[in-house]
């Protein structure tokens, strides 16, 4: 997966698998931080550059949010959409996101920060991810 480290048109391509009537291609790049880093965390930032084949493909970037409800005694952990769905993004599109308000929401108990790069279409397509960067400030 070192192809993802630099924005150089060397890509990781994921071919869609059929899911009912749809075709879905997904890659979940992630990093793990230490307990000390997590306890001191001030900011999480993500940069992504990539595209997917297919003029009507829907592309979405999401991050896993591990925050628990303060009012109910159960977890509300879920994917949180950061970008998209964008339709027919067949050329590279840069996207940057950061959170310095509640950054630990995006870190699991074991220190994992996980991104989802997902494309959905009605025919076989591929995600074509050039670059993913995670930055954690602590
Ligand atoms: Ca690359």
Structure overview:
With 138 residues, the protein is mostly beta strands. The protein has one domain. Helix content is 4%, strand content 53%. It has 1 helix and 10 strands; from the N terminus they run ββββαββββββ. The protein has one helix at 35-39, and strands spanning 12-15, 17-19, 22-27, 30-32, 43-52, 58-65, 78-87, 93-99, 112-121, 126-137. Strands 2, 3, 4, 6, 7 and 9 form a 6-stranded antiparallel sheet that branches. A 4-stranded antiparallel sheet has the order 1-10-5-8, with no helix packed on it. A hairpin with a 2-residue loop joins β2 (17-19) and β3. The longest helix is centred in the first third of the chain and has 5 residues, at 35-39. It is globular and about 45 Å long. Residues 3-4, 6-8, 10-11, 130-131 line the site of calcium ion (CA).
Helix content: under 10%
SS content category: mainly beta
| Heterogens | calcium ion
Cα(first) to Cα(last) distance is: 25 Å
Q: Please tally the helical runs, counting DSSP H or I stretches of 4 or more residues.
A: 1
Number of domains: 1
SSE string, helices as H and strands as E: EEEEHEEEEEE
Low-confidence stretches: none
**Percentage beta strand:** over 45%
Shape: globular
* Total E-strand runs: 10
> What is the radius of gyration?
16 Å
* Biggest pleated-sheet summary: 6 strands, antiparallel
